[in-house]
């Protein structure tokens, strides 16, 4: 790609073999390219970001899921978009241009669309996909946002964009295809939906 990169892998003691595979990749590509930074147990997405940032040496950080539901082929497009508009954040969107979702049942699609629609109506964030996590950030912007954000779980991604708008950061968007994981199961359940609605109302009341 011509881009100087490193891959920081944060694994929270998951039982799916992520850490073992990462160790194999580290042997193949070297510890300067593959940085495995595991944690003993699940401590939440926000703290995983902070943990990863401590070990990232670059000026820009791309956040993505490691199960390939976020395809690496979009990363060069994120970089191009960032350079084109000198954006602070470039967010992958499933709801704009030729973006889309593959492998979800109707219920999951309705939940995602509904969550996004409610967020757009209540918060008017100026970005089309609030619940996705495939994003490129300037490192210092990501640091500032993680300091400001208080949400956990599903709401965290949404708060990141809302706080970014509040702080005057610029956001570009790149249409992406999201493909549901082949192995493992989604963590989205009833508790997550209730947490999302509570978080949405909290953000509405405080922003």
Q: What is the class of the largest domain in the CATH system?
A: Alpha Beta
**Strand portion:** 5-15%
**Mind describing the biggest β-sheet?**
4 strands, mixed
Gross geometry: globular
Summed up, the helix count is 7
CATH topology of the largest domain: Spore Coat Polysaccharide Biosynthesis Protein SpsA, Chain A
Question: What is the H-and-E element order?
Answer: EHEHEHEEHEHHEEH
| E-strand count | 8
Known CATH architecture of the largest domain: Alpha-Beta Complex
As laid out across the biggest beta sheet, the strand order is: 3-6-4-7
What order do the helices and strands come in, and which of them pair?
Elements: E1 7-9, H1 18-29, E2 34-36, H2 45-55, E3 60-63, H3 75-85, E4 89-93, E5 100-102, H4 106-123, E6 135-138, H5 139-148, H6 154-166, E7 171-175, E8 177-179, H7 190-206
Parallel strand pairs: 1-2, 4-7, 5-8
Antiparallel strand pairs: 3-6, 4-6
Overall description:
With 207 residues, this protein is α/β, with parallel strands linked by helices. It is built from seven helices and eight strands, in the order βαβαβαββαβααββα. It is globular and about 50 Å long. The termini are far apart. Helix 2 (45-55) runs antiparallel to helix 5 (139-148) and helix 4 (106-123) packs parallel to helix 7. The chain has two domains: 1-43, no CATH class; 60-206, Alpha-Beta Complex (Spore Coat Polysaccharide Biosynthesis Protein SpsA, Chain A), CATH 3.90.550. Keywords: Endoplasmic reticulum, Glycosyltransferase, Magnesium, Manganese, Metal-binding, Transferase. InterPro entries: DPM1-like (IPR039528), Glyco_trans_2-like (IPR001173), Nucleotide-diphossugar_trans (IPR029044). Residues 3-145 form the Glycosyltransferase 2-like domain. Pathway: Protein modification; protein glycosylation.
């Amino acid at each position: 790609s011509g881009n100087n990169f490193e891959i920081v892998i944060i694994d929270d003691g998951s039982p799916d073999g992520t850490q073992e595979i990462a160790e194999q990749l580290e042997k193949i590509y070297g510890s300067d390219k593959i940085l495995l930074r595991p944690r003993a147990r699940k401590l939440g997405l926000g703290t995983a970001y902070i943990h990863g940032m401590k070990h990232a040496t670059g000026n820009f950080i791309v956040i993505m899921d490691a199960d390939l539901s976020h395809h690496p082929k979009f990363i060069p497009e994120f970089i191009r978009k960032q350079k084109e508009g000198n954006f602070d954040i470039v967010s992958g969107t499933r709801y704009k241009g030729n973006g889309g979702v593959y492998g979800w049942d109707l219920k999951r699609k309705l939940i995602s669309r509904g969550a996004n629609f409610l967020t757009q109506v209540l918060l008017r964030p100026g970005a089309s996909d609030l619940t996705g996590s495939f994003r490129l950030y300037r490192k210092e912007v990501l640091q500032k946002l993680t300091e400001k954000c208080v949400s956990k779980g599903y709401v965290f991604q949404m708060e990141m964009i809302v706080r970014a708008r509040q702080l005057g950061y610029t956001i570009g968007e790149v249409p992406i295809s999201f493909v549901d994981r082949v192995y493992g199961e989604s963590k989205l359940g009833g508790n997550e939906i209730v947490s999302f609605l509570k978080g949405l109302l909290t953000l509405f009341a405080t922003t």
